[in-house]
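User: Structure tokens for both sequences below?

Assistant:
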Amino acid sequence: MKPTLYILAAGMGSRYGGLKQLDGLGPSGETIMDYSVFDALRAGFGKIVFVIRHDFEQEFREKIISKYEGHVPVEVVFQELDALPEGYAPAEGRTKPWGTGHAMLMAKGVINEPFGVINADDYYGADSFKVLADFLRSVEGKKGEYCMVGFRIGNTLSENGGVSRGLCKVNEAGYLTDVTECHGIERRDGKIVQVAEGETVPFPEDAYVSMNMWGFTPDYFDYSEADFIAFLNAHGDELKSEFYIPTVVNNLINSGKVRLKVEQTDSRWFGVTFAADRDATVAQFRQLVDDGIYPTPLFK
């Protein structure tokens, strides 16, 4: 069975200033998602599942999903504020859903095979999808064998501001022992630094970081649901609390229930974290097409 790719596309794009998932950045109006789907198909993925919100479903189907017809099976699930386990309800005044960990649970029952997870608004590069697909094929029929595609920190920075990245700690066997969310990472005077609480400190140049590119077997959903219920019991009355994939991953690793291999790639990330990133991203896609890495349009 071919692995499935789960694309997290329900975010608001608040820093960018709009629905960047639908922004045409390639020479023929391709979105970043289009390049991810193209690379995933070349790597051997067999199905695409998107998580979106109901309020832009029609536009998403018209602009995105329609172009994949005849190329790959596609399903859509929805992340909404009130999509909660039985007996739970959002606190009065809360306006946004519960983060990436919550978005993952929308696919329970839809994905029943090893699957990869990515953000809709990040370009990951062809090699990263090959690495991910190879791992997922190797764990078919297994449980508790997960992976994360680790990117070199220097290959993931924006020229237009500090970024947040998950700093990975890896043991000698190549398995993740901890992932810590770090904010305000940028390059200054040729050095990678972290700006936090008014202080600028060096950031390890050789670090591998998480770009939210994961590989799981379907047992992940049951583990995640149990953690989400515990999260709601502790933080469900808060208006802005969020439940993240790394929270579940860390809990599972620390409890010894799963192993998570860090699969390394030298792919170079780029994307549109900030509105000012757009022009550079358009130029990078143009260059990849000129170099013969991608056709344009991607899907005919």
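Moving on to the next sequence.
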Amino acid sequence: MRAIVTRPHAQAQSWVAQLKAQGIDAAALPLIRIDPAPDPAAVQHAWHEIESYALLVFVSPNAVDAFFSLRPPAKHWPPAVLAGSTGPGTSAALREHGVPDASLVEPAADARQFDSEALWAQLASRPWQGRAVLLVRGEGGRDWLGQTLAQAGATVRALAAYRRAEPVLDDTTRALLEAAQREPAVHAWLFSSSEAIDNLKRLAPQAQWRASIALTTHPRIGESARTAGFGTVIEIRTGVEAAVAALRELQSKAR
């Protein structure tokens, strides 16, 4: 069984390398393309006024990388400003960019899901009345956490640090997509975004996925996979280790 990693290019390559290191046959088919910020000056301006915020929320590793790629040379993360993370990958990216653990707020390690709701569980007890919050995300995006913080009294602004777009397949990824359609039962798709599934439907509108397996990291993503026609949908925790465990179990059942 081959695992198909659908995360954006940089993350997909990292995941494939980690899966292969643990003996999993894996290949990258990025189903979301990450483009630069629509307004780089707005990101740089946010850096210049970063001390005015009580909290910056990062919705993904892409948000972290995009925000820090436009950091002015003289600016560093202010220790008094909190960095909110929605999951382990985002937290790792923040640490790689020098955000200290004392500034990091993230879901509990045993959270059932790694998402905005799990992050809010760690933020809810703090006083937000009159405090400024910046949501660092892609263009568009889910507004639940911003609305929840605003209801708690915070002044919330969203910053588009990057754009998400439908990928353009090259010869390698097109061949992988065609192989997955020819032999759906021997491919397991790893989905961490409903948008990736939407893009897959546009790239292969006639595909039949009833015999394919989708490993998804959230109930909303699982529902999107079922709607797309995937016959087997398995919800797993975020992270390479959870994917490895699920894939090994699938392989053992297939023997």
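User: Anything stand out in the second?

Assistant: The chain is about 40% helix and 20% strand.
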